[in-house]
Each structure stands twice: as C-alpha cells, then as structure tokens.
Amino acid sequence: MNTDANNLSKPAAENNNDIDLLALLSVFLRGWKVIVFFAVLGLLIGVLYSRYESPVFKADALIQIEAQSQGVSSALGSSDLVSTSAGPAQTEAVLIKTRMVLEPVVDLLHLDIRLSDPTVDDLDRIKNNRTNTQLNTSEGVMLETEDGQAQVSQFEVSQDYLNQTFTLVRTSTGFTLSNGLDDFKGQLNQPQRFRGSNGVIQITVNDLPTNNHPINIAKQSVQNTTNAISGALTVAEIGTTSVIQLSLIGSNQQQITLILRHIVLSYVDQNQSRGSEETTKTIKFMETQIPLLKQKLEDSEAVFNNFREKSGTINIDQEASILVAENSQIDSQLNELKLKKADLTTYYTEEHPLVIQINDQIAVLNNRIQEIEDRVAGLPEIQREFLRLSEDTGINREIYLTMLKNYQQLKIVKAGQIGYARIIDMPISTYRTIAPKKQLIIMIATLSGIMLGLVLVFLKSLLRNTVKDPDRLEAKTGVPVIATVPRSPTLSRLSKGKAPSRLLAYVDHNSLSYEAIKSLRTHLMFGMPTEGKAGQRARVILISGESPGVGKSFISANLTEVFAQLDKKVLIIDADMRLGELHKMFTVENNTGLADYLSQNNNDAQADNTLANFIHPTTTDHIDFMPRGEYPHNPSSLLAGEKFASLMTELNAHYDYIIVDSPPVLAASDAVMLSQYADKVLMVTRYNKSIERQLVYAIKQLTKAHVQVDGIVLNDVQQGVMDKYSYHYSYAYGNNK
C-alpha cells in the first residue's frame, strides 16, 4: 500500500512541474506585447546609441624600467650619499598617473581649456553619426564648426570662474565674451584682460566662426582635468618584464597621440630629475656649508698663529703629540659618522638598527675624546692651550678638506647621472576605432530588451501575485469564495466600443456569467437570517471591493436584477458618493440622490424634501434606484450621521432587499460605517487583476473594525488554455449559445 502510494505520488509531482512550466510559459505568452515592445525599444536604442556615440580611438606607448642607473655613479662604486636603487615597475605605473607627471602636460597643451559647439544637439549627433572635437596643441585650442574655426591660445580665470561656461561670439570689431551676468568685448589676436564680478579673466582669441555662431568655452580646474586624463589613461606592466604599456583613449586620434607623447616625455623628465634629486639636495647643502667651514678654518688658524707668536716655539713631548694626533683622528671619524647618520635619517627613524649602531659608535668616540681631554688637563697650561688651538685648527682643516672632496665627487656624479626609464615605443596614430562596435551594440541592446521584457513580465506576475485560485483565497483570508463570475464576451465587446455598461439580462442572458449571478442569489437567499434586524422587513446586502475597478458595481446591479425576478421589491443604493457610476447602467439622472438627501437642510421650506424625490424607478420591474447624487465635500461624515441611520430605518420598511454599493475598502472608510446596517457583507475581487495581498489587507481592516465579511465574489474569471486555475470556470453551467 505504501509503495503504491509512493509510486503514484511521483507522477503527480511530475505533472505539477509540467503545469508550473506551462503556467510560466503562459505568463510569457500573455505578456508577449510587453516583450516585443522592449525588444523593439532595445533595437531602437542600440541603433540610436551607435550613431550618437562618437568613435573612440586608442594610442599606445612602451617604457622600460631598468634595474638601476647606468651613469658614472656606478663606476665610482657605491656611495653613502647617493642612492642608486630603482623603484619597481608597479610603482612607476602608479606615478605616471599622478599630477606630478600630468600637470606639465596640461599646462603645455592647454588641456584645461574646453571648447564646445552649443548649436550641435543630440539629434545632430545622431544624424551626422559623429561630431567635431577640439584639438589642443602648444599654440592653443582649436575647434572646427560649420561656420569656421574657433581658436583660443590663452584663457586664464580667477578661482570663482573655474568650471564655468562662457560664450564667445564674433563681432564686427572683435569678439564678445559673456557668462550670463557680465559681457566683455575684446579684439582678436590680442591678449585681453577683463575684470568681472568674480575676478579677473585673461584671454587671447585668434579666430571665431562667422554668422554669429556661438562657441562655449570653460576653464577647468587642474584636478578635474588630470582626473579626466587619468580616467582615459591605462598604465600596466606587461607580465614581469619591467616594461610598462601606456594606453590612452579618446575621440580624436591626433589629439590622444599628442597627449600620450607628452605624457611619456613628462614622465621621463620627472624620472631623470628624480634620479638626481638626492644628489642635487646634497650639493646644495654642501655649497652652504663649505664657506662656513672655510671661514671657521681661517679663524682657528689665525688664533693659533697669534698664540704661537706670543708664546714662542713650544716643544711638545711625544705624549702630547700622540694625544693631538689621536684627537684629530677621532674628530675625523666623528665627522664621517655624523654625515652617515644624517644620510640614514633621511630614510629611517632613530629606532632603526643602523642608526642605533652609529649612535653607539659616536658615544664610544665621545668617551675617548673625554679621556684625552682629561689627560691633556694634566699638562702645563701653555701646552694645554697649544694642544687645544692646534687641535681646533687640525679638525677644521680636516672637516673642510673632507667636505670639499665630497662636493667635487658629487659634482662629477651629477654630471653623469641619468634616469632609469627608457622609451621603447612612442605613440603613433593608427586611426582605427576601438568603439563603438555597432553591430554588437545593436545585438546586445535587442537581446537586453527581450530579457528585460521577460523579466518585467515575470516579476509583474510574481510580485503582483494577482487573485486567481479560490482555494488559495479562502486559505489566506479565512472567508469562503461564494461565487466565481466568468467574463461575458458579449459585454466585453460592448465595453470596448465605449458603450455604457448594461445588465446581463438584456445583453447576454444565456451566458455563464448570468448563471453565476443567479447562483450567488441562491447562496444569499439560503444564507440570510430568517428575521431582519429589529424585526425589519428588508435584507440589506453590502457589496464592496478592496480597490477600484474590481467590478463591484457590475455585481451589485446584476444581483439586484436577479432578485427582482423573484417578484421581490428591491432597492439598489449607490453609496459611492465620490466616483459611483451606477446611474449610467440604469440610465437614471444623477442630479438627485443619496448625497443630496443627506446634505439637505431639514428646515428648508423652499423644496419638497420627501424621500420619494431621491429614489427613482427603473425600467426593470420591482427595482428602485437611489443614485449617488452631487459630489459632497464630506461623504464619510454624512454616512456617519443620524440622518443616514433614519434613512435606512425608513427604507427597511418598504423593500424586501436593499443592495448597497459602497466605495472600496482601501480607498475610503465608508464600507465600515455602512456595514452596521447590512445583513450580509460581500467583497468583490477581480480575477488576474486584483492584488492578493491587497484583498487580504482589506479584509483584515474590516475584521479589525468588527465587520464580518460573509463571502468573496471572484469576478471576471477567464479561461486560459494553460491556466491551471481556470477549472472553476468550467464548472459553471448554462446555455452559452
């Protein structure tokens, strides 16, 4: 038994999967118009974009980063004062895109000056399939137009004018420069200086188009200009070869080739100057110290010679000579250690092992100097003074000669020092476009349109989660679906012709829709309480919906008609005083109705205010109709007043059934107030249009207000070939000839 059950469940599961796939296919088939629309839209966008987008060109260059400098410094051997190490290629690739390299190119080629033709719009770009672009050279900026060439060789502005657009127009005497606030007049081919409200403007205009053709000009900030160049520039190392490839893209092949060429030259210049930067700084430092050391040596020699002249010749014993020589040697060593320390501290901190080692050596030598000074202190005073002066002279001479020697050596090194970047290939103009690839763009745009259409159709079906399955509705809301009303093809055709809505009894009385309305009548008749509220005669049925357009007025009108067939006196009230249109279905004037009755003044003696004036007979026997009347300013307040309660009490004594068509629950709170007079509350929802969660929320709102919804009417059910929820449609029974 269990085995058989398992075997039977597998085909059922496979069948469900097939149904789901068919349901998904049906979703796409129902949305074929959306899919085709987006496919055509994607094709159109692809064609227009391929014509609108300017062609993109590319220029390439190659630079080799050598391991180390090959200048005279290599021949002189390693030096503590000159660094010969070269940075890796990855670091150089980053440096190429910095302002240090790009800013000189911007200044040389005037790349921060932007010219544009305001007369060329998007339609012209599509029509012409390309546009003229400016050309920047060291002489200035040029732009071709249909009325001639624009050329500007200088344009400098104050900070407040940066990134602002000015307009240049040729005049009979020169040109006019304006920005909407200030107008400046100048001469062609002459430097002009203007003072505006936001600062100074300096400009030299060489040529402008004729026929009052305007030209837009703007001075970009250096940051924006270098950022734009850096965005179009690609710098990367080729594998691990230490060869860097530079690629620049742009809409003008001649322009990008020129820019990339100057970028390469700017980088090489920066590289070369950076390679000798440390040597240059050291030489400048030595040039400031050598005169001071020379003067100090001369002063010490003068003092020493003066002492010798006053004291005569002094014979220094062997011990004093040794002390003087040792002290001089120690001072020389201290000098060298201090130079090394100064060189190391430019790269490392005081905590670095090499710096600590030198500090230890300096401390040892200082201790030895202190010992020598202590021993010298024991010598006679004249000998001590002689030793001190001779020692000062010797130390100053040693320092001066060492500094002079290093200075001359560094001069030789700098003269032969070169950078470690070598140009392999300079950029050349190929005039081959790399973008846009028109055929690929059109194909991708069309496929993207199709995919977007499929996704939108699927998401619309998935996210909207429209009302379809009655069983699912009952499970979600806890309210039974008491009727499913199929769509009437005849009535649909009449509605498309903009004909007023009519009752099914007159246009499609043999349809399944009409039979479904009769089934709803039967359900309500047997579900009504045997006695009305407080012994009243009429049974009140309130019909509402979760949102507009679900067909509640259609259900109300046709349900009224089938109740009247039982020879029952029926009143239908259009309680939607905002947008009710039941008067069109019953062909009754809307000038007097519910809103007028509730809004009238009880003390008004100039008009006949009896209830009969607001209730109109219809062409159908046993049916009376109260239209909504003129739109009031406070419909909810009128329904909550005592006058409406008195109206319902009076009407209950004259009719067997009263059907009230109320506004949607989510649009107004009128249904909550009307429900207190109803024996049955029905919620109408529309198949494959109403949102399931909106219906659930509307019923929850009524439940919170202590209103019990007695049933759901699923309206406008359609039978689809692949719709797995359409089985409810087939169960209706009727003569559909």
The CATH topology of the largest domain turns out to be: Rossmann fold
Quick one: biggest sheet? 8 strands, mixed
Strand content is 15-25%
- The first-level CATH class name of the largest domain: Alpha Beta
Q: What's the number of structural domains?
A: 4
Q: Which whole number gives the mean pLDDT?
A: 81
- What is the level-2 CATH architecture name of the largest domain? 3-Layer(aba) Sandwich
Give the overall shape, derived from the CA principal axes: elongated
Euclidean distance between termini CA atoms: 48 Å
Radius of gyration: 49 Å
Helix content: 40-55%
Spatial strand order of the main sheet: 15-22-21-16-20-17-19-18
What this model shows, in words?
By secondary structure, the chain is α/β, with parallel strands linked by helices. The chain has four domains: 18-53 and 436-464, no CATH class; 72-275, no CATH class; 300-415, Methane Monooxygenase Hydroxylase, Chain G, domain 1 (Up-down Bundle); 466-529 and 538-604 and 614-730, P-loop containing nucleotide triphosphate hydrolases (Rossmann fold, 3-Layer(aba) Sandwich). The chain is 49% helix and 17% strand. It has 25 helices and 22 strands. Strands 15-22-21-16-20-17-19-18 form an eight-stranded mixed beta sheet, sandwiched between helices. A five-stranded antiparallel beta sheet has the order 2-11-6-7-8, with no helix packed on it. It has a five-stranded antiparallel beta sheet with strand order 3-4-5-10-9, with no helix packed on it. α24 (692-704) links the parallel β21 (680-686) and β22 (711-717). α10 packs parallel to α12. The longest helix is centred in the middle third of the chain and has 35 residues, at 277-311. The radius of gyration is 49 Å and the shape is elongated. The two termini are 48 Å apart. Mean pLDDT is 81; it is low at 1-19, 69-87 and 724-732.
